[in-house]
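Supplementary Data S3. Sequence and structure tokens for construct A.
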Amino acid sequence: MIRLAPRRRPVAAIARDRRGATIVEFALVLLPFLTMLLGSLDIGYQVYLNALTNGALERAARKAAVGNRTRQQVIDLVTDEVRTILPVAQRSDPNAVIVTPLSYFNFSNVGGGERITGDTAPVGVYNVGDCYEDRNNNGRYDATGGGGADLGSSDDIIYYKVDVSVPRLSPLLAAIGLGNTTDIHAKTLIRNQPYGDQQVRIRCS
């Protein structure tokens, strides 16, 4: 019996052989394609969540401005509406939606310290002997973060901040360094209606 040796293909012929190349090329582009697709969906989800959060915050702030809502009622109004689009697993998470209202005497005080009402030398800074508006009722003057942790009184300025944190739509996005959560931050300012006298709590050191 005569056995024929297997035919060997030239290297050039192997290099020109394109059979199976499509599978390799598909594998190479699959990950970038999926990343772009999931990234687009995640951005769209963020835009939608941001719009809903801002809308819920504005509606709740307007309702609270007339003075017939408590701080907790306003927090619940915003939280309940935002939770409707959260993943089911996050709807009962108390840290998924954080609503923080702070009250100030006027717009110029927002984000700053408590208002000094009786200023002694040196003028313009708080020193012993000055009187100040103790917004957060902690018994001391606060140079920063001096907002009251309530809905204030008539004519007060209320600063609302909402922080929403939910897991990303796909673990793949977290794996490439985009973080494990989608974080939305919404803020608004609104003045309470003049439904009564503006209340102040004055303390003197």
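Construct B, processed identically:
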Amino acid sequence: LTTINYPMSWSKASSWGGILSGTRVRTITVPEGVTVIPQYAFKDCSNLVTVNLPGSLTVVSAYAFSGCTELERIATLESVVSIGNNAFLNCQSLKEAVLKNCTGIGADAFSGCGNMEKIWINPEVTSIGSGAFKNCGSLVIHGEAGSYAETYANANNIEFSTDAFDAETLSTVRGKVCVKGTGSGIKDVTISVFDMVTGKDAGTYVSDVDGEYSFEAVVGH
């Protein structure tokens, strides 16, 4: 199992917290309407590369993505109001994040994200927990001048910038495997995708009964 389309039956935190923890899933799509990613939801999913989050999401709970060492992209955190303690702890491949409606970032929330280059923190954030960006040696915090984000960055010797940026956006790439000359679809064909930008395997997908397949890909800033 490498791809999961998150069912709405999992929308209540108490019903599925930790159910996918430690699995080998690579791509997760969370549908519109879900508001909370519960504690430990995807903890230690070490093969997870891409998470597609809905605009309805407001809370990423403690340890939700902790230990997802291959996680590179999160689309999108812009609607999130609260990020729990250790939510993205040791997500070593995560490179950026954009917060636009957040009010609080928990302790060690992004600690150990060693390849994280930038994060936009909106001016409504008034609380950033201890060690939130510990061991993020390449990080530049972006935000508005005079904001709490700037105060926090200065107090913790983290580079600060007022330059705004947008999160990477994803687009659905679709294709079909078919018999030459007839157009008839061929099912159960494995399609391997390689990311030329990162130089990494971007996932493996299987054609459906009609020979069709789809996956999410970055289309730029």
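The longest strand covers residues 212-220. Residues 104 and 127 are 5 Å apart (CA to CA).
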